[in-house]
Design brief:
13% strand; 7-stranded parallel beta sheet; alpha/beta; 42% helix; globular; TIM Barrel
Amino acid sequence: MPITPCRPKWKAAMTGRERFNNQMHYRPIDRCFNMEFGYWDENFQQWPIFIENGITDNDEADIFFNFDRIDVVNGCIWMNPPFEKKTVEETATSRIIINSDGLLAEVPKDAHDTIPHYIKASVVTPDDWKRVKDERFRIDDPARRIDIEAIKKTHPPDRDYPLGVDCGSMIGKVRDTLTFEGLAYACYDYPKMVEDMVETCCLMVEHFLDQVLGKIDFDYASGWEDICFKNGPIVSVDFFRDVVTPRYKRIGDRLHAVGIDLWFTDCDGDVRPILPFLMEGGINCLFPFEVNSCCHPGELLDEYGKDLRIMGGFDKMQLGKSPEAIKKYMESLVPYVERGGYIPFCDHRCPPNVKPEDYLYYLDLKEQMFGMK
């Protein structure tokens, strides 16, 4: 059934596409671009506003809250076929599974949102990687061919919303394949293997981009690179600079050649040690910018000026405290929304400890402060 929005769309004098591009390029806007990153799975099971209106996932929630539309085109840029997902063992409280990246993992039986406990990876040694690479990373895989006309039909040239092109992951998915500990060891035990994994990721993305760039008019590029935690990057800064950044540059050259000058990547944790090398590679926007493991978004926006943009950065801890805490934090973001290059929303998926009434207050306050006056 069609979803009925629970609130009117913010008033507007521009299209969402015009607004997004202007805001990210420090040009005049009618109001702030209105978006959110989404919600934990538990929110859809616990929040009455979702349960009573049949809202079951983040795509439905975006429609329900009437956010500005933003979309992205993806390609087959990771392993294909993925490993078959299956349950290996069950206990009273957990399941041991094989996931799509080939990891043996323990997950809670009630399926609540949490990071799995990884037990064993399918790729540990160079021989493991050679086998998986030969079986699952073929450039000539038919699944990697892109249907340009289908994309144009789905996202016509006269669309009124911003459209991005996915540039994937150079090292984050390598981390997913090897595990946190596995990557840490492999950088020292098998550095050539890890670099070949990064190179393979880059080749997959380049193959996709070479099919779509120049044929679809994209507004931005996106990526996913969860390679940091609260103490900084998982890999050494030298490794990141010498192995990962050169691959970013190759992708960045392709993007810049067709006029794409906004590229964000989703990287949780404290990105500050590697930020200069993200930017050197062409990534100039951070998303969703976790505050507590890094800093207030204003600190980096002040430091890097208009060379950097940020999307996100509203502290989820304040969102879960009280309306007073929400207002105080929102007020701290005003100068950065006003200067441009910054779109505020929850600094990860909104957790279920946030009260639905406080979340609605947050949405109302955001409209009052950053919508059309």
